[in-house]
């Protein structure tokens, strides 16, 4: 997911973007044009970074023109990409959620990268990405997506508020029990009014993704690798949801109801919450806007430590010409070199997607001055694949609806997950032949 700085920040392209001939075979001057959907669902100067990468690539590759098209949220971008695919004019490449892989395959909208991996250098490049990120990029022996802006969920805390509460500002909670105990000390009330929450875990936008942190820690895996079966009603999943509900209803250290994804960082900046769970893609945003010392840590462990991975991959359009696909592949290799992966990670807060990016001088200097940047990378050893199935948006919605029903008090966690599993089973049964 962005999983990103503020996924509610959207740059609309409008319906006209769907009808324009985005993927013209070549420009008049003989250049191959690579149209490129990029989901502006993040805050900060992201478009400037992408535009800069495109311009630098064109200088080194004058026969190729890169045309970024900023396409809204991830959800809006997948709709636009599939609409463009069906109309016959899709972008040559797109950054879409890694979890969209099965949907894109089922729609016959993308081609695997395997046919473009020809040389030893190509094979080395493909093997350079963190294995955790490849779990949502490969299936049935083929590579369908290339990791680009990837993330995990991490814990942020306000060190000043820790100190005020008598907690060691350098030591975050490391277990579920500690998380509750810390949050109780960090929650402030003025009569019936809560002025400061101990913790916030967003439940809008990407509730399933934040929840997957809890289910992983409870020892549950939400889906099988084939993407055709879920385990929403497993006892460990119900246990994870009960823990989340109890933060607000039993322990009263977390807001009741739905906690907004987009406003949670702002609540953190305004000291309305002392700890928050959100994407590592928020790291640069927090560093820029928090007017107090803050910490970044791995998510507290339940039965085990863990977080889902999240974020976006590059995909190649099946309806593009071979020349366009080759040009896009060249750009994707170029933008994911160690130095550029490091730069992207430093400038955005996303996890640099390959191990050797962390050995570059720029990244080493960055981590030396800002050790929090390495937390998400270190958490990868405990990470699991983000929820991804066939009919992914519908199957994910089934879970999101159940989560929100439980968090708002409409259903018990057990009933909510039973209903979610029944709906997911109904959707996925045809894919188990």
UniProtKB/TrEMBL annotation:
Annotated spans, Disordered: 411-433
Subcellular location: Periplasm
PROSITE patterns, per database record: TAT (PS51318)
One Pfam family it belongs to: SBP_bac_8
Cellular component terms per the entry's GO annotation: periplasmic space
Keyword entries, A-Z: Periplasm, Signal
Coiled coil: none
Gene3D superfamilies named in the record: Periplasmic binding protein-like II (3.40.190.10)
Signal peptide: 1-28
Keyword field contains Transmembrane: no
Biased composition (Basic and acidic residues): 416-433
The keyword Lipid biosynthesis appears for this protein: no
PANTHER family, alphabetized: ABC TRANSPORTER SUBSTRATE-BINDING PROTEIN, ARABINOSE-BINDING PROTEIN-RELATED
Record family assignment: Belongs to the bacterial solute-binding protein 1 family.
Name of the protein in its database record: ABC transporter substrate-binding protein
UniProt source species: Phreatobacter aquaticus
